Every structure is written in structure tokens, then in C-alpha cells.
Amino acid sequence: MTRRFSRGLHAGVLCALVWWAGATPAHAGEAMPTRGDLGRLSLADCVVLALRNSLDVRGVFLNRIVQRFALRVARYEFEPHAAVQLSSQARSGYHAYDRTRDEGGKQAGALTTSRRVPTGGQFGFVWSEAVGHNDWHYDPGYDSAWQLSLTQPLLRGGGLDPAGVRVATASLTFARIAEGQNLLSLKQSLTAVINGTIGAYRAYVQTLRQLDISQRSLDRAHELADTNRELIRAGRMAPMEAIQSDAEIANRELGVLQAQNTVESVRLALIQILNLDREATFQVVEEGRTTVRVPSVEEGLGLALLNRPDYLAAQRSVDAAKLSLAVAERNALWDLSVNGSVGRGLTDEGTWPRTLWKAGQFGRTDWQALLTLTIPLRDLTIEQSVVSARVAREQATLGVKRLETSIAIEVTNVVRDAEVKARQVELASRARQLTERKLEIEADKLRAGRTTNFQMVSFQSDVVNAQVAELDAIIAYLNALTRLDDVLGTTLQTWRIDVSPDDDAVSVVGTPTR
What we know:
- By secondary structure, the chain is α+β, with helices and mostly antiparallel strands.
- About 55% of the residues lie in helices and about 20% in strands.
- It has helices at about 5, 45-55, 55-75, 160-170, 170-235, 240-275, 295-305, 310-330, 350-360, 380-445, 455-490, 490-495; strands at about 35-40, 80-95, 100-115, 120-135, 135-155, 280-285, 335-350, 365-375, 495-500, 505-510.
- A hairpin with an 8-residue loop joins strand 9 and strand 10 (about 505-510).
- Helix 5 (about 170-235) packs antiparallel against helix 6 and helix 7 (about 295-305) crosses helix 10.
- It starts with a helix and ends in a 6-residue tail after the last strand.
């Protein structure tokens, strides 16, 4: 805003009809009535009600449960995995040559653990124990075995270098990027609910004020008719002049009826947004005379690039595209991997402790190491993945640049519009004051017989038009400020709405700044 505007609007300009609910809102988690007479509801109260009652908001927070769990799953990929397997076998075999039956059984158990490491490798450990018995052999047989293994890619799919670690942990990074974008999407949803509530509340306030203007214009029409009748009785006006004032009364009554219908329609629209009972009643709060400093275009652009969810999401898309390209390029390398294992397996017909002790002697373990190199010969699918990832990165970068240009234009327009709307409020207020004064002068002239009834009716219409114009200018100015918040991405900050990754509901942390 220019220096003239940034110093504030004239105190008298906004004194008539600036509505801004600055009362401290209830916390979103606190119980608020939804039926009957709700009393006085400020704009802040309605915003809290909408955020608490909106079915869309509830649906978004339900989705957050699944989204948070997806991040847990991605983290679980690098946590230890373990499983226990137990089995029991009974067998019976018939020998035809001697017509005997061989019976026996086996009980076994195994513990399997594995863990993936950030280099792309995987450790595995298996410990198995089994005991078998036969009816023809008195002593049972014990099997005990263990094995520790490692699989580590050195080029494709991972590696010991930083680039390999980045690729090996790409799935977790993608999950974190997706979680960040989910939070930004949540903020956009909450912002949309807030803006919708603000628009509906102001529309309701505007229609109520228009009804008041219509009612007062009807009262003035009745006063004019009374004045005309006195002038007619005094012989200072022709009786036929009364027809014009009577027609004006009929027109004003029609305007009041139409305004009442509009009020009810807009009230129900607001009720729907707040998810209240349709029979609920409340009174709006006309409070606050506020002067808002509009930032410069440069300041606004900086705020927008710092706060706008769509721009931040676009930047995260670029990060994801860069990582996808790194993964594709790494997977285009040869497949060089090392595999190793150490362990021992033993069968003993003695006792189980002795078998277990022998199996655990590390000096007598078996081990192996394997280095494998796989060289693809002309695999176009690998090259296709790299080309696709590179193009996707460039497209994401172009998307950010296009969005920056669009945001710069939006900020320029919304800053200018807020400044112009502020000036329009000043002019509309002055025009309304002068029009009302003109009507007062004309009324004095009518009593003195120095003007016509037609002129008086015309001036009354001018007053109504001026009052409506001022009302429209004020609502347009307030909506311009709301639009400014939306373009700058500061709606949640203005309304003190806090959004945390682990929240299951909206949290209001303070009083709105406007």
C-alpha cells in the first residue's frame, strides 16, 4: 500500500459499517451448541464452528490417519524384522516286505531376523532347531543350525558412497516428501473452509444490512407521505401529488420483502457451511474498526513464496523428481554386489545341549563370500527410465517457474486491489454522507414549498443507492483483505490455526490478527 494508505484509513470512513469479528474464538475442540438460539456469533466463532463441524474437515483428518501410517511403513523398512516358525510333524510308513509300520515325528522351530541398512544392504540371521524320533531308534536326533548373511549392492540399487546411500534410502525420502505434501494439502483444505465461511458470513451480514437499509427507506417513504398529507390539508400541495409517494411506499415494501427472502436464503447457506441445525438462530456481531497495512508487492511476493502451500508443494515435487532421476541413473549402472554368510549346521544323536554347544563353536563355522557382477547388454528400458526421470525433473522445474510468474501477477493484482478498495470505501462513505445531507436539505425545502414531491422521492432513492454502494464497498474491501491472505498463503496464520503432523483435529492457538 502507498504511504498514504499505510498510515491508515481516515477514522470516520470505516465507522459506519466495518464488520470484523475480533472476539477471541473458542478452541476448536470445545463444545459449542448447534441447535436452538446460539446467541451472538462473531466471524471468529463461525470460523471455529465450521472447522469443528465441517464434514469435509473430518474427512481430511480421517485421511491423515492413513497418511501417517504410510510414513510409519516407510520407516519400518529400515527397522529389524523378525519371525518365529514352529512346526510339528508325525509320519507313518508301511513296509510291504515285512508287513511292518515305521512311525516317527519331528518338531522344529526357527527364528528368522533381517534388517535393511541405509547402504542398500541387508543383514539376515537364521537360527533353527529340530528334534526327530523313530520307533525303531531309541535316541532322538537333534538338528541345530545358524547362519548370518549379508547382501550389499555396490553400484546399482545402493552403495557405500553418499550417492548410494541416497538411492538406497529413496523410498523413505519419497515417503517424507509425500507426508509434507499431505500436510500442505490439509492446510489448503482448511483455508478453503475458512474462506468459504468468511464469504458466507459476510454475505449474511450484507443482506441484513441491506434489509435494514430497505426498512429505513420504507420508513422515510411513510414520513414523506405524512408530510405530503399535511401539505395537502394545508392547501399547499395538489392531492394528485400523493400518488407518487404512495407508489414509492409500495416499491419500498416490495424491496423489504425481497430483502427478507434474501436474508433467509443466505442464512441457510451459512447454516449449511457451519453444519448446524437449520432451525438454529443467532445474531451476527458488528464490531471492530480496523485498519490493515497492505504489504508492498515485494513484501507480498516474499510472503507468498514462503507460505503458499501450492508453491511449497511444487518445490517438493522438484525434490522428488531430482531424487527419481538419481535413482534411475544409479540403476543404470552395472550390478555389482557382494554376498557373504557364516554359519554352521549340525546333527547329533546325543543330547540337545551338546548339539547346541557344537553348533555354536565359531572356530568350526562354515563361511562363504561371493562377488557378483552383472553387465546388461543393450537394455533400452534402463535408458528409458533415465530419460523419463530427466524429463520429469525438467517439467517439475518449469512448473515451479510458471507458478512463480503466476504468483507474482496474483500478488501484484491483489495488493493493488486492496489499495483501490480502501480508497473506494473512503469515497463511498463521503458520497453517502453528502447524499444524506442533500436529502435533509431537500426535506426542509419541501416543508417550505420550494421543491417538488418528485424531487424528494428521487433524493430518497439516491440515499438508498449511496448506502448500498457504501455497504458494497466495505464488503468488497474486507473480501479483498481475505483474498490477500489467500494469495499470500497467510490465512491460517491470520486466524491462528495451528496444523501439526500428529493432530487429529484443528487447533486454534490464539486470537485472529484481524
